Amino acid sequence: MQYFNDKTVVYLNGSFVKATTANTDLYSQSLHYGYAAFEGIRAYNTHNGTRVFKAKDHFERLKRSCELVNIPFQWDIDELISKTYKVLELNNLRDAYIRPLVYCAPNMSLSEPTGVSIMICAWDWEAYLGNQLLNVGISSYQRPNPKSIPIDAKISAHYVNSILASTEAKKRGFNEALLLDMNNNIAEAPGANIFIEKNGTLYTPPAGHILPGITRTTVMQLCQRLDIECQEMVLTVADLMNADSAFFCGTATEIAGINAVEEIVLPMKWQDSLGATIQRTYKSLVLEKQNYEVII
Ligand code: PMP
Question: Is 187 found in the same domain as 91?
């Protein structure tokens, strides 16, 4: 996967610069300690032009992630959104994945940052887990104890846990991992949230041990709109194994149906599931095919 070429332009601390000439410092606290915050955002080529889906929510979460770990956030959100559109325009991208990253200055001590930078880049990225139904393995890695690090912040260091879980699942022959929390309840995928369907209702783990995603909120809003019963509930592995259907959701993943968990194939045909309805409605929403703005 090539993320940039010699024409690619990124936004870096107020300027638009070539990705090939932009650089960072080897002594950055972010590189050594994972002390950085980032976002994953998607832009869609809609009939209203290129639209960054829920841009404000993402940049507000970036700000909150920084605040939760004492990284100063000194930028205006509307300005960052307008720079994001400019990055897309300069790179001639219509459908794109956008990655803002806030990272820290050189500082080898375990202290608050001595300086911060922001960069925004974008590239063309297919649905992260592809479009097939997923076989999911329960990870031997747990999501971190929320008392060890704010789990609802999107912090770079968290993603070592995600990488370990995903790599392990792939080595075991699965498409993706599902991580449990410190109490052995269902948490989330390495980069997505989970919903399960049982007897016509959708259930998803509550906030506390997960990154409560923006797509997860969108799914809950779509449920209201479609009159689908949806509840936040602590879920066990047995709940998942006995589910009628299940799906992952996230900005990069969008809505991805689950075929099986470990050796248990979920019984409902994906096209008959609530997840498939949500998948279709989500696509219409992000493509602005119907005007949900007034409803949500
Ligand atoms: N959980 C984790 C660990 C993630 O990395 C992501 C992706 N940001 C999500 C859930 C889904 O979040 P969102 O819907 O905001 O992309």
Answer: no
Residue 41 CB–ligand 1 contact under 6 Å: no
Same domain, 14 and 45: yes
Our count of domains for the chain comes to: 2
Are 54 and 169 members of one domain?
A: no
Extract the tokens encoding 142: 């747990």
Residues 117 and 155 in one domain: no
Residue 181 Cβ inside 6 Å of ligand 1? The answer reads no
Is the distance from the beta carbon of residue 100 to the nearest atom of ligand 1 less than 6 Å? no
Chain segment 142-172, per-residue pLDDT in tens:
999 999 999 999 999 999 999 999 999 999 9
Closest CA to 206 of 178, 179, 247, 234: 234
State whether 159 and 229 are in the same domain. yes
211 lines ligand 1 (CB under 6 A): yes
Catalytic residue among 56, 86, 154, 269: 154
Q: From the CA of 215, give the closest atom in ligand 1.
A: 14
User: How far is 106 from 219, CA to CA, in rounded Å?
Assistant: 40
CB 204 within 8 A of CB 232: yes
pLDDT digit string (tens) for 190-208?
999 999 999 999 999 999 9
294 pLDDT above the threshold of 50: no
Condensed to tens digits (0 to 9), the pLDDT of residues 14-68 reads 999 999 999 999 999 999 999 999 999 999 999 999 999 999 999 999 999 999 9
Active site residue 154: yes
Q: Which domain holds residue 220?
A: 134-286
> Is the pTM above the cut of 0.90?
yes
Burial group, residue 70, by CB count within 10 angstroms (0-12, 13-18, 19+): exposed
